Amino acid sequence: MKKDEFTGILDDLHRRRIPGGIKKAVETLLDKKAEKVTVLRLKGLSEMTDYLVVCSGNSARQNKALADAVRDTLKKDLQMQPLGSEGEAAAEWILVDYVDFIVNIFSAERRQKYALEKLWMDAKRYDFSPDF
Questions:
Q1: Mean pLDDT estimate for the chain
Q2: ∠ at Cα 71 (23, 7), nearest 5°?
Q3: Which residue, 31, 45, 36, is CA-closest to 112?
Q4: CA 130 to CA 76: how far, in whole Å?
Q5: What is the enclosing helix (H) or strand (E) of 9?
Q6: What is the DSSP string of 84-124?
Q7: In Å, how far are 1, 57, 59, 80, 90 from 101, measured between CA atoms?
Q8: How far is the C-alpha of 122 from the C-alpha of 92, rounded, in Å?
Q9: Among 39, 34, 36, CA closest to 23
């Protein structure tokens, strides 16, 4: 992603009415080159969580690095600890649960297979990547 595209996406992110922890997570994912970053607002649609953050990585190693970066940044900048995390052994789908929002980091194949964006079609959707 070019610098001006990145800046434009970050400007769009900061204008949105999304909680600060989610904005920080999305910013971190974009900085670490996550692809097709999407936020789904589930508030009122599900009791599971208020928001889902969904993105893709290009490899198991990148997926692990994305999850680590989100956890480290939210802990350092916002003193937020996840309730739990799973999926790091295979790193095809890593889930990091912050209760009010869940970060889902997929391989491209798993993202297509589970299609969370289609499952939650009624959710308000925010896309933060130039490739949408």
A1: 93
A2: 35
A3: 36
A4: 28
A5: helix 3-15
A6: EEE-TTT-SEEEEE-SSEEEEEEEHHHHHHH-HHHHTTTSE
A7: 26, 19, 24, 12, 22
A8: 26
A9: 39
Q: How far apart, in whole angstroms, are the C-alpha atoms of residue 126 and residue 42?
A: 12
Which of 128, 74, 77, 120 is CA-nearest to residue 99?
Answer: 74
CB within 8 A of 121, min separation 6: which ones? none
3-state SS, one letter per residue, for 17-83: CCCHHHHHHHHHHHHCCCEEEEEEECCCCCCCCCEEEEEEECCHHHHHHHHHHHHHHHHHHHCCCCC
Residues 6 or more apart in contact with residue 117 via CB below 8 angstroms = 38, 40, 54, 125
Residue 132 pLDDT exceeds 80: no
Tell me the C-alpha distance between 7 and 9, whole Å.
Answer: 5
Domains and CATH numbers, the chain: 3-127 (3.30.460.10)
Residue with tokens 């971190």: 28
What tens digit of pLDDT does each residue of 83-99 get?
999 999 999 999 999 99
